[in-house]
Amino acid sequence: MMIQGSCCCGAVRFELTAPPTMMATCHCTRCRKVGLSTFVFVDRASFRWVEGQDMVESYQPDPPYQFARCFCRRCGTALGEPLSPADDFPIAANCLDSDPGVRNRFHEFVAEKPAWYEICDGAKQFAGHPVRRPSPAPTLALNPYP
Prior knowledge:
Blueprint: E1 3-6, E2 13-16, E3 22-26, H1 29-34, E4 38-43, E5 47-51, E6 56-59, E7 69-72, E8 78-80, E9 88-92, E10 104-108, E11 124-125
Parallel strand pairs: 3-10, 10-11
Antiparallel strand pairs: 1-2, 2-5, 3-4, 4-9, 6-7, 7-8
């Protein structure tokens, strides 16, 4: 299963050779503002740049935030964290050009969700980060969710 992804202007293109491991939505103010509310986690081994890796810019926010956010330098499309050195990392679901084959598993930071947004699926909801399962080897990504 090959899944294509791209930015709005087409300068950045990538592909996944395997489906994402999960999908989730973050309602924190920061993720909403950078355009990364719904994301999918992908395994590094299944991710491949097709074009435009040199067009990807990274924004590292001030503490307490620890994860950089990437975007296309030309059109500004939020891409997630494809430059992360982690074995698995989030990609903005809005960049996927086709159905990734997974559905939203949970909503996090619903305490920060704006009043005008209604959650209409049956996915679990958490006021902040969901409790993480222990991982045999720590990674920089946030994938070890229940």
